[in-house]
């Protein structure tokens, strides 16, 4: 099997776990974004958005898994790690990815309003930074997009039924 096929299969497998994490977020009323951080073929950390639960603007899935991985590995340098996330990282998360020195990021759905890994800009490959991150996108894009679309449709329906 060609190496590219192996990578794609591996990416899909880890992204499936990120989707499961996003579904966990949806179950508790959070925006359904999930993330998984992998090192040497092993999931080191997984998580999902907790911004509403924790009332913290920084409680994005990416930040949660990066911080958890740093604690578990005993280092802030995650140079041999790959982050899988269901939605293109925002500027804050893209900055944290660069600061953590991640090797690669794989995301599902693009974010036209806040995506900083290629949609609005690409902070992961900004030549003025001292680190760049490899990037793959569109892995399980339909599933990732559908989770978000359904969540926000349901949210609008609930608000409308409450008269808001």
Could you give the count of β-strands? 5
Strand coverage percent: 15-25%
Strand order of the largest sheet: 2-1-3-4-5
- How many DSSP helices? 5
Query: Biggest sheet, open or closed, and with what strands and sense?
Result: 5 strands, mixed
Rg is 16 Å
Q: Averaging pLDDT over every residue, what do you get?
A: 94
Poorly predicted parts:
none
From the helix content, strand content and strand pairing, which structural class follows?
alpha/beta
H/E series = HEEHHEHEEH
Shape: globular
Please estimate the helix content: 40-55%
* End-to-end Cα distance: 55 Å
Write up what this structure looks like.
By secondary structure, this protein is an alpha/beta fold. Helices cover 44% and strands 18% of the residues. The chain contains 5 helices and 5 strands; from the N terminus they run αββααβαββα. It has helices spanning 3-27, 51-54, 61-73, 91-99, 141-161, and strands at 34-39, 42-48, 81-87, 104-109, 134-137. Strands 2-1-3-4-5 form a 5-stranded mixed sheet. A hairpin with a 2-residue loop joins strand 1 (34-39) and strand 2. Helix 1 runs parallel beside helix 5 (141-161). The longest helix is centred in the N-terminal third of the chain and has 25 residues, at 3-27. It is globular, with a radius of gyration of 16 Å. The N and C termini lie far apart (55 Å). The mean pLDDT is 94. Its cofactor is Zn(2+). Catalyzes the deamination of adenosine to inosine at the wobble position 34 of tRNA(Arg2). Keywords: Hydrolase, Metal-binding, tRNA processing, Zinc. Belongs to the cytidine and deoxycytidylate deaminase family. ADAT2 subfamily. GO terms for molecular function: tRNA-specific adenosine-34 deaminase activity.
